[in-house]
Amino acid sequence: MLISVAPVLIMLTWVGNLYYQQLLEKHLLEEDFIGELAVEHIQKEVVRLHTLLINKSDPIAYTLKRDKNLPFIDELIHQVIKREASVHALLLLDKQGEIVTGIESYQDLSLPVKERAGLLAHWRYLVDEFPDEIKTPFTGETYIGPVSHHPEGMFFTISIPVGNPEAPLAVLLAKVDATILWKGLQEHLQEDDVVNYLVDSNGRLLSSTIDSGFSVGESVSHLPVIQALKKHAGWHHKQTYVGLMGEQVFGSLSEEKQIGLGVITEIDRDDILQPIYVLMIKMVLVAAIVVGLSLWLGVQMLRLIINPIGSISDEFKRVAKQDFRHSLIHSSFQELQSLVNGFNLMVDEIKHSHNQLKQASVVFDNTSEGILITDADHEIISVNRAFCEITGYAESEVLGKNPSLLRSGYHDKAFYQSLWQSIKETGKWRGEIRNKRKNGEVYTELLSINTFRDAQGKLTYHIGVFTDISNIKETESKLDYLAHHDQLTGLPNRLLCQARLEHELQLAKRHSEQVGILFLDLDMFKTVNDSMGHAKGDILLQQVANCIKQSIRSEDTVARLGGDEFVIIIGSLKNRHDAARVAENTLSLFSRPFNVAGQEIFIGASCGISVYPDDGLDQDVLLRNADSAMYQAKARGRNTYQFYTQALTEEASQRLTLETNLRQALDKGELSVFYQPQYSLKNETLIGVEALLRWNHSDLGLVSPGQFIPIAEETGLIVPIGEWVLKTACKQLKSWNEMGFNSVRVAVNLSSRQFASKGLEKLIASALTEADINPEDLDLELTESIIMHDEKHIVETLFKLHDMGVCLSVDDFGTGYSSLSYIQRFPLDTLKIDRSFVRDITSNSKDAEMIDSIIALGHSMNLKVLAEGVETIEQLQYLQSRGCDEAQGFYYSKAVTADEITAILTKTRSQTELEISS
User: What is the C-alpha separation between 89 and 102, in angstroms, rounded?
Assistant: First the structure.
């Protein structure tokens, strides 16, 4: 009898322990499942709201780019507020953080935004409270969370960039009421004997399925599971503690880290142990009865218990094979039957989760967006049906392949480097990309790429979701072209003309530049229409438009305003004379006949010119003034141009006349070289001359260098003229050497245009060789602007010239950058102090200090210092007292002819010989 009791007791103990473990595991799995289900629903809600905002951001961005139609934007925002009860407020903010528009859920949504002053004032006051929620979207990223407590409730934020992520136009910011959002989740969290509640990252209670005595927003950080959440420490669901209701519980912790949320699921420990207590009592009774029974009864009892348990084990194996039928096992033991019932409940829950996965699979396969999933090695592991339909590839053709098989070759390497850099740094990328279908067709898609990592932070998947927007892009392009171009000529119409003019005016204002507006009207065009018909008149307009378009720079704009009126916009205008030159070139197009249907037609045009900012500060005024100037041109005989003011027209005409004559001056022999002496201040001897260009026109007489040198620079004539001056000065120096004047050097100015042209060092070498003079007798004067460019070929040219042996001087030193750093970088020999500092050297202490600094700087770097513009003995004496090396100016002599320099040299030599003989 005693022998039979021991196995029975062991069996009962084993069965009780097994039942306890299975029942406990079942409840804990239920706990975990409910928590994970809550997190999954929360994530879906956040993703859904995020997707909704993204879908609304595209039309908002489109509107902001075009016409900033705030009523339309208000309507889009209004739709979101009406649709989503959890969205407490929806705001659109510009780059300065200022609110463009916005709506709160409790506002009267029918009111226009300008009447919602309270809302705007309220949220402007709160802008400083969430700088990251504004700053982050302007980097092209989406900002989500975290949940935070405010006097008005529990909120979290979703803010997304509006427009191109690389350069967003604005931010769409949604304040989501967490309390309202959670109400929709209650049905998923409610389970018998289970306490569920939500907390934020600071341990504040957000919601609960029971009345716990704690209010929403109140801290429950005293609970161990909440402490683990705040410390981001691990939590094992078999740990017990005093729970929210004050009872010993088993707790489960699930986290939604993106918005800082914790889902806590608690089961009363006594509720789990109660069936065990009942079983133990029954087992004691059974044990007492078993002691009095025979061994045969004990064996039979064992069989009745063990067989159902073995069957249940088989049932578990069946469920592992995804056979979700209920167990049909029946047992006379209530506890075993409870275990079977618990098993069937678990099967129902697993079946429900499996069905949800199937639903997700159905959504995956039937969504209209293409989806592909790659592993950490960028190999495709799954695609949906839309992917196959859009790309033309079957699933079997892409599995295991790299997504690069879709590359069209449209994007360069830098594009993909930027894409992957964004994914590496932010975990996502969104934008437009051009890919290629299987048949070779290139299409445009809107692609979003996101990365997913496991609990340890290891990268597991890349998920790409894309939409084929080729038709949308094509339609947008066509509509945009029709809206902004003239249908007859293809030129920009009035709308696009005004937009481009406004853009040019903004650039000109920012960079202190000018903008030219040429208003062109065909002369007697009505006669062509009346005599030949409108169809041929249209052909003529098309030919005129094409000729004008081909004659202007690509960065300028020619537009047709209507009829026979055209406008030319010249951006980055250097001066008014360039506008006059464009007008002359344009009018010259009408000197040739146009061929219309085999018939030659001569037609003229009148042009009016206005210039920003002198003739107006906005586009309407500038266009009106150019139009007015055009009518002045018609009144003055047609086929000509007029500036808005007559004085400017005459100035432009005179300048063009000078330019025309200057082009012929070299061939006509009207140019000559004068020389201004340069003296050593140590012994008052002539040691060099500066070659200066002069122009004596046959009709105009002597033309000031201040008038024609800038024209020569702008037109490029300075290059051939500068070459002639260089060679002339070298030949004259050779002539003086042959006369015995071997201690004289000649200084020649070089322009930036000459440096920009290639082969300058070859030109100088050739001039030295032809004249047969020593390189050290040639001094090349450079402006500060030339060497400040620090371009590679300029640096190389300077060192080549230095290696040749010629001297290099910086002209007008002190008027430009005057940087010590560039003086040290280049092989210079002389600093020439500008005459503006010398003029007031004896009366202006600042000029005197500047002179002293330049002399000290030059000598500290072993450079000679030459002062220009010396006119008085006082100036000369001051320079000598400060150790200046050389000087030139009217005190000694103005620029004179070569013969006069020869006379000075001869006189100096005679005096020297006389002094030696005496």
Answer: 7
Residues 807 and 911 occupy one common structural domain: yes
Q: Which of 878, 861, 864 is nearest to 826 (CA)?
A: 861
Report if residue 841 sits inside a domain: yes
- Domain of 518, in residue numbers: 485-644
At which residue do the structure tokens 């006594």 appear? 270
How does pLDDT run across 432-457, given as a tens digit for each residue? 888 989 888 888 888 888 888 887 88
Statement to judge: residues 636 and 516 lie in one domain: yes
Start-to-end CA span in the chain (Å) = 159
State pLDDT tens for residues 744-799.
999 999 988 887 777 888 999 999 999 999 999 999 998 876 766 556 777 888 88
Mapping DSSP onto H, E and C, the string for 838-896 reads: HCCCCCCHHHHHHHHHHHHHHHHCCCEEEECCCCCHHHHHHHHHCCCCEECCCCCCCCE
Element (H, E) at 692: strand 686-697
pLDDT classification of 518: cutoffs 50, 70, 90: very high
Mean pLDDT of 532-552: 88
**pLDDT tens per residue, range 233-287:** 778 777 888 887 778 888 887 777 777 778 888 887 777 767 666 666 777 677 6
Instruction: Answer yes or no: do 198 and 155 share one domain.
Output: no
Strand duo 87-93 + 170-177: pairing: antiparallel
- Cα(307)–Cα(49) distance, rounded to whole angstroms? 53
Position 80, amino acid: V
CB–CB of 814/823 below 8 Å? no
CATH number at residue 456: 3.30.450.20
Q: Are 889 and 781 within one domain?
A: yes
Does 316 lie in the same domain as 248? no
Would you state the pLDDT for residue 300?
63
Query: DSSP 3-state assignment of 640?
Result: coil
192, 241: one domain: yes
Which letter does DSSP use for residue 203 in this model? Answer: -
Q: How many domains does the chain have?
A: 6
Q: 865 and 851 in one domain?
A: yes
Residue partners of 352: CB distance under 8 A and separation at least 6: none
pTM exceeds 0.85 for this model:
no
What is d(CA 896, CA 14) in angstroms, rounded to the nearest whole number?
125
